[in-house]
Design brief:
mainly beta, OB fold (Dihydrolipoamide Acetyltransferase, E2P), 5-stranded antiparallel β-sheet
């Protein structure tokens, strides 16, 4: 059986973007558990403008106490309200944030890594 997937060779979705800062919309925010058993949040965002509009970025933030500063930086940059009790994941969806992206090699392939979070200039 042959499954027709027209344009598979032409897709750009699997190629890493150049390092830079990209304005993105948060599309997913979901609590999960890492392979090592630590709680974390899986994030997904879509680049919303420019040459890479529609490109997806994926990253996670650890919920280990010593790493919470990264989550706070993201929440502050995206304007997502929180307290010592936490935050509502649905409040993150649709929020706009600038993501500072670098490249790294993983399993022999170049991929993007979200390194920092900045408020948008809009």
């Amino acid at each position: 059986m042959i499954i027709n997937v027209k344009g598979l060779e032409d897709t750009e979705d699997f190629k890493a973007m150049p390092a830079g800062t990209y304005t993105c919309v948060i599309m997913k925010c979901e609590e999960t558990t890492s392979k090592s058993g630590n709680q974390m949040i899986d994030w997904e965002a879509d680049v919303r403008e420019g040459e890479f509009e529609g490109h997806k970025l994926f990253w996670n933030t650890s919920l280990v106490e010593k790493a919470l500063f990264r989550l706070v930086a993201l929440l502050d940059a995206a304007g997502i309200g929180y307290s010592n009790e936490g935050f509502a994941t649905e409040d993150a969806l649709g929020q706009v944030v600038d993501l500072k992206v670098t490249q790294e090699e993983y399993e022999g392939k170049v991929r993007n890594k979200v390194d920092d979070y900045l408020p948008t200039k809009d």
